[in-house]
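User: Show me sequence and structure for the first protein, then do the same for the second.

Assistant: Starting with the first protein.
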Amino acid sequence: MITPYDLTPVNGPQDGCIRDVGFQEIDIKTGELLFEWRWSVHWDITDVIMYPNGTQGSCSTPWDPFHINSVHKDDAGNYLVSSRHTSTVGYVDGRTGEFIWKLGGKENMFEDLSGGVATGISMQHHARFFEGNRSTITLFNNGVSLDGSKYRSKGLVVDLDFQAMTAKVRREYLSPHEKGSDSRGSMQVLANGHVLLGYGVNPGWSEFSKDGDILCDVHFGPGSRFGSEDVLSYRVLKREWVGRPKTRPSVVGKGGDIYVSWNGATEVAVWALGEEDVDISNYGSLASVPREGFETRIPVPSNLDMTPLRVFGLDGYGNVLGSAPVVRGFGAADQGVQIPMPMAN
């Protein structure tokens, strides 16, 4: 929302404009607005990290002082909000909209028991409560240094004591890349305790053990292009995924073997051979092999090398997931025949 604002306290124009940011909670079924919140109503505009430069602050090029990048509601009805341009994670009352506490930035309310690592967050992203516990949060700390010095992005698990008002880093997950992430990024704690960091403007991600050992480091763009923004992600998340394609399996008969693949099917555990006209629910396997990967080779028994056959994909419980078109002409003559992939009925 572009909002008129007197920016003289931050060396901007009196008749200036800002990009005011906030969030809304809406009942999806009814469309009812349940809660609305704006950062500018609850924050001193001078307590930001970067003042507007000479090209910012007019209503044609409004200034972006807050820049919210994540909101997480807890079971108490309050909100954990991350603001990149104030380097602050705040806990917002879901009734009044007032801050209950603020971590980091110029209005930090916590004593840091970790030598400045817990409260010295900078341009952070993806703040979340850890395992539903309001006294522990996770976040991706971009760690951007405004003076241009070298920095290293990291994931943080931070414990908060609301009685003593202290903050302490429980664990750090350090990016293996020498170049930090200027923007974007994410941290996800997986069900097995592993941690996944996405590096935003640097096109890659890493999975760590709970203790911080790197298990996997992936680039989906060249390291030479890190920071260029021609390849990037906002967040990287890992989830269980099941693919059920609308096409049928693709098969090739060649040299006494059948080769089968089914692009997108994640549940196939076994490929089995059945007769041409067999009922799919009672296919009577003539031969079967475990799925090997994207493409699986099925050696055809010699007594069947001239028999029209159908290939069935089975899950780990023996249920038929789908069948391929009939395969013919895969005998010893070694003539490969590509069978087309019609759409499933």
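Switching to the second protein now.
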Amino acid sequence: MTKITDIEIYILKPGAIASISYGQNILWETSHSGVIKISTDDDVYGSYIASADCLKEFANRFSIQKDVIINADILDRERIEKELATKYRWSNSILSVLDACLWDAIGKTLNYPIYKLLGGYREKILAYASEIEWALSTIQDHVTLAIECKKKGFKAFKIHPPHQSWKEDVKLCKAIREAVGDDMILMFDPYSHEHYDREAAIKVGRILEELNFYWYEDPLPTNDIHGLSNLCKSLDIKILIGEYVSNIGGYTMLIENEATDSLRCVDGLIGGISSIMKVFNLAEAFDMKCEPHSYGPVLMQAAHLHTMLSNSNCDFFELPVPDGIYDRGMKEVIKIDNEGYVNAPKKPGLGYEIDWDYVKDNTIEILPK
């Protein structure tokens, strides 16, 4: 039995975890982020990186419900999280932080990477480069980044359009397809933006089919069940929905109405690694793929990676580009190999080490007080 003994949260100064420097100008820096550390009586700890707002909410809740967590066995993860969710109404965002930390600590205690404990299926997964559209001003900026990613070994690239109009988005897709050739896998994600009505979404989808795109992600709002259902029936390209779903039950309406071809999920919305595994199982029950989001700091990427490595019904790992934008504060980061794959971490737990000296130097507040 390994007991939880303490929780510390380090709030970092702005920009300490990520920033974008692309071309000549620094275009973006994060707001406050932080690191949480859960210690145990076996001298192992679990840690995770999240937004400062999320971690401050965690600290406030923990101060009130400390007795549910302190002295609990880390292997009683499901019981701890269920009690906090049902009895004390903890949000999925803070439960996901606790869940990742517990899995990290469990893996370190048992000396296994998390994906092995989840039921390891593979040792590597193909990655796609996932761009940040608001760091790119012109179509040529997007094209340049796509070409750079291909040269670095990526076999797949996902476009986030700048949301000027659906016609401009189509121009962007055509330009990138022409630039990278037919051998690169392309995905398109307008992430439910309001400038796509149902008619525009179908028009864009048909052009994406002509351009041989692999999937079409969040072309309409998640709650437009009828529109999404009609889109799935009208198009051959794979429709991918679910990134904005915040509970397991939210997927049932999508599935029952055939309003998506594959499921998408995010740990911070759905409740962590444990909940992502439930989405994978739900997708498998309906012979569907599950393609988790994995955009964010390295440990957030890693949390999603472990679920992908432990399931067969997933094709890709999402890796943020430009390179290195979320790598600050880490001694180890996630990279592709020369074939475009991300390989499984070998170290226990989440498998990627935080630079604690860096955290110490950039901490502006320690919680709970």
